[in-house]
Amino acid sequence: MTSLLNLCINNIFIRLNLNEMIDQEIKNKLEGIKVEIAACTEEQKLKDLYASVLGRKGIVKDLMAGFRNVPNEDKKAYGAAVNAVKEEFTSILKEKQEEIVSQSNAKASKKTSEIDLMIPMETHRKGTLHPLTLIEDEVIQIFKRMGFSVVSGPEMESDYYNFKALNIPDNHPARDMQDTFWFINKMLLRTHTSPCQVRAIENIGAPLRVVAPGRVFRNESLDASHENTFHQVEGMIIDKDMSIANLIYIMKTMLSDVFGKELNVRLRPGYFPFVEPGFELDCSCLICNGSGCSTCSQTGWIELVPCGMIHNNVLEMSGIDPNEYTGFAFGLGMSRLAMMKYNIADIRVFNRGDVRELSNFDTFI
Ligand code: FA5
Fold this sequence. Notes:
Helix content: 40-55%
Structural class: alpha+beta
Strand order of the largest sheet: 1-4-5-9-8-7-6
CATH class of the largest domain: Alpha Beta
Distance between the termini: 72 Å
Oligomer: single chain
Number of helices: 14
CATH architecture of the largest domain: 2-Layer Sandwich
Mean pLDDT: 89
Shape: rod-shaped
Strand content: 15-25%
Largest sheet: 7 strands, mixed
Bound molecules: adenosine-5'-[phenylalaninyl-phosphate]
Number of domains: 2
CATH superfamily of the largest domain: Bira Bifunctional Protein, Domain 2
C-alpha cells in the first residue's frame, strides 16, 4: 500500500485549492475509510482504521513523506491539505471512539439494570439432625454421666434372645403382647430392645450397668402414638443390693435431665415376664398438659418407661446367681420421649421423611 501511495504522491500535480493537492485515488481511499469508520461498532476495528490513516504506516504519514517532492510554491498549500486530512480523521475517529465507548457502557448498565436486587437470595438448605437422633444422643449422654456404658444388638433376632431367654417360652401368652414380624427362617425383627439385656449379661456378666438404644419393630395398627418401627432404649443395672428405690431414682434423674424440670409421672404395676415386680412409668401428656388428646388416647397419660426388677429366671438363664446379684431393667419408649420433648403430636412424623416436619428441632449441621 505504501509504494502505491508513494507513486500517487509523487504524481501529485500542482493544484491551487486544497482538494486538488491530494491525488484522487488517495482521496477515494480516504472516503472509503470514512464510510468504514461510520459503520464501525467495535473498538478493535476502529483501532485498525486509525492505524491505516493516522498510524506510523498510515496514509497521512505517506502524504507527509511526499512533501519533499512538492514544488516550493505549493508546499504551504500541500501541508495545509495534509493537515486538514489529519485533523478531519482525528476528529471523526475520536467521535466514533466516544460513541463506541458510550454504547458499550449503556450495554453494561442495561445488563446491571436487568438484575432484580429485590429477588430473595437463593439459600442453601442446611441439614438438621433427626429428632430421634437428637434425643438418643441426649439420653445416652445422661446415662453415660451416671456411669452406664452403651451396648447394641442386631435388629434381626432369634426367638431365643427376643423371647425365650427373657422368660417367655413357646406358647406363652406374653408373646401376643408384641405382634411380631417373622422371617421364614424362624428369625424375627426384634420387637423390643430387651434382647440386648440377655446379650449384655452373657458378654459382660455381673456387675454391669448398660444402655442399649435401637430400632424395634411390631406389626401394629398405626395411630398418633403407635408406629410399626420405633425406637427404645433398654437399660439395666446388675449389682449387689440393687432395689426398686435405685430404679426409681435413675428413672426420675434421667427424665428431669431430658426435660430440665420435674415431670408429672405415675408408677403403676405392669406385667412383663422378665421382671418381677414390674411397673409401668407413665408421664402426664405434654401435648395436652394432661387434659386428654389423640396423642394420649384421651387418657392424659403417656406410657413411657416400663421397668422392674430383673426376674431370677433371666439372671439364672444367663449364669448369674440371683442370691448374689440383683438388678433392674427398663425399656424407655424413645420415640414417645422425643414426642414429649419436641411437642410432636403424631409419632408418624418420624418415619414420614418430610424434611419440613423434621427440620425444626434443635441444632443445624
Ligand atoms: C417392652 O417393650 C419391654 N421390653 C420394656 C421393658 C424392658 C419392661 C425392661 C421391663 C424391663 P412395651 O411393649 O410396653 O415394653 O414397650 C416399651 C415402651 O415402648 C412403651 O412404654 C412405649 O413408650 C413404647 N412403645 C411400645 N409400643 C410402641 C409403638 N407401637 N409405637 C411407639 N412406641 C411404642
